[in-house]
Amino acid sequence: MNIAHLIPALPNDPVTRQAVEHIRSCESEPVANHSIRSYLFAVLLADHEGLTAGTDFDADLLFYACVLHDLGTSPSAPGKQRFEVEGADMAADFLTRHGYGMRETDAVWEAIALHTSPGIAERHGTLAYLTRGGVGGDFGIGVDFVTDAQGEAIHLRYPRLNIVTALVDDIVRHAARAPQAAARYTPAYELSRERGEFGAPTSLELAAHASRWGA
To answer: Range of 28's domain?
Structure first.
């Protein structure tokens, strides 16, 4: 049975295609798939809450914020600051190079920089709210409105490939590059501490295994 129609389509213009090519060139396959799934969950969240693209949020900026949100975990990141900030910087640079102005790049920067900040991202506008919601949705958080058929279609098209462990590995690797990359009490610091003190799996991995989508 063809279930592809159950999930949102990705934007299909030269810059959005280059964004997908970009993450696939510098991120691992599990992380790249996670980034795309985050966008799909964000769109489903927007639909569920009656938010309209073009009125309540910019559809292209949501795509970029979700798809580019983990660039800071990639080997191409500088490794001098926390991964959320470096990812936001790298996304802003990508958008600037493709003709986007300060308003658009600042909005995407903020959404990415705040995507690991619960209680803050949700209060910084619809773009940051949907970005965090999409990322969280891929960890099984707040996705009761997603049908089993939609979840199956998303994961069939973009498999998980043990994403949570792959992402934790990348975050811990990035955190080890400089003290500023794992400031105390940041997600990178806590994941690195758990790996160092307790070994795998981390609390994030344990939570993911118990979540709706699994790890």
So the answer is: 11-160
